[in-house]
């Protein structure tokens, strides 16, 4: 019994040391990033883009789809998503590599503004520091608008305006439920889901988006089925 207690104690100490090192390393990455370009300057660059689209000029179906599938607790949570982050950290520590993200929308925004997409635990920690900066300076609607305007949708389309015009030849405000949910699924893996080469995968991903919306009561089964049928016809599947 003493041996087991000793082993557990040593393990806990090692975990605490590892967590401390990761936090310090992540904070250092955060400080270096904002020292090079302050967050307010990065955000201003986004807002000055010619095709920047405010949230009130984007289809509500698209906005709802993004939140439902990517960060369900976005509007009700302050700070980190303890549930998602804890699950992701446990998975990553057990595997010894970054297999699961657990990122919220503000963290994903930070990643797109400052970091490469190569996963690392220190980057995940740095994203958390940016999360608190973002939520202190901007509203939830503003953060969501920044996010959908910078993420990549595949086929050379950066931001919702380019994606909406490039894929459907219409403005973001005009997107239907089918179009909106198809687009909302692309950013998870644009190279796999882009509509030029990943139609089957994109349709499967859209189904996941629609199921997420159904789960929170935003749409019903009939609307979901109609959207999938439209997309299947549109994509020629």
From TrEMBL:
Record InterPro entries: Glyco_trans_51 (IPR001264), Glycosyltr_51/Transpeptidase (IPR050396), Lysozyme-like_dom_sf (IPR023346), PBP_transglycosylase (IPR036950)
GO terms (BP aspect): cell wall organization; peptidoglycan biosynthetic process; proteolysis; regulation of cell shape
Pfam families: Transgly
Catalytic activity: Preferential cleavage: (Ac)2-L-Lys-D-Ala-|-D-Ala. Also transpeptidation of peptidyl-alanyl moieties that are N-acyl substituents of D-alanine; [GlcNAc-(1->4)-Mur2Ac(oyl-L-Ala-gamma-D-Glu-L-Lys-D-Ala-D-Ala)](n)-di-trans,octa-cis-undecaprenyl diphosphate + beta-D-GlcNAc-(1->4)-Mur2Ac(oyl-L-Ala-gamma-D-Glu-L-Lys-D-Ala-D-Ala)-di-trans,octa-cis-undecaprenyl diphosphate = [GlcNAc-(1->4)-Mur2Ac(oyl-L-Ala-gamma-D-Glu-L-Lys-D-Ala-D-Ala)](n+1)-di-trans,octa-cis-undecaprenyl diphosphate + di-trans,octa-cis-undecaprenyl diphosphate + H(+)
KW Lipid metabolism (keyword) present: no
Keywords: Carboxypeptidase, Cell shape, Cell wall biogenesis/degradation, Glycosyltransferase, Hydrolase, Multifunctional enzyme, Peptidoglycan synthesis, Protease, Transferase
Domain Glycosyl transferase family span(s) in chain numbering: 45-214
Family the UniProt entry places it in: In the N-terminal section; belongs to the glycosyltransferase 51 family.
Name of the protein this chain belongs to: Transglycosylase
Organism annotation: Holdemania filiformis DSM 12042
């Amino acid at each position: 019994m003493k041996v087991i207690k000793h082993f557990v104690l040593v393990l806990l100490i090692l975990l605490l040391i590892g967590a401390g090192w990761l936090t310090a390393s992540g904070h250092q990455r955060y400080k270096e990033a904002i020292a090079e370009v302050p967050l307010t300057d990065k955000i201003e660059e986004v807002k000055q883009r010619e095709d920047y689209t405010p949230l009130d000029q984007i289809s509500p179906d698209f906005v709802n789809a993004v939140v439902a599938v990517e960060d369900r607790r976005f509007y009700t949570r302050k700070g980190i998503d303890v549930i998602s982050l804890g699950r992701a950290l446990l998975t990553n520590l057990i595997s010894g590599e970054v297999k699961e993200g657990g990122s919220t929308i503000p963290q994903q925004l930070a990643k797109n503004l400052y970091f490469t997409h190569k996963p690392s635990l220190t980057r995940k920690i740095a994203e958390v520091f940016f999360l608190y900066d973002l939520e202190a300076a901007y509203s939830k609607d503003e953060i969501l608008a920044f996010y959908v305007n910078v993420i990549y949708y595949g086929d050379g389309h950066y931001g919702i305006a380019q994606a909406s015009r490039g894929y459907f030849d219409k403005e973001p405000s005009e997107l239907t439920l089918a179009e909106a949910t198809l687009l909302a699924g692309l950013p998870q893996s644009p190279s796999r889901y882009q509509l030029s080469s990943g139609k089957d995968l994109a349709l499967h991903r859209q189904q996941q988006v629609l199921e997420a919306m159904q789960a929170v009561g935003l749409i019903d089964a009939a609307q979901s089925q109609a959207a999938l049928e439209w997309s299947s016809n549109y994509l020629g599947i």
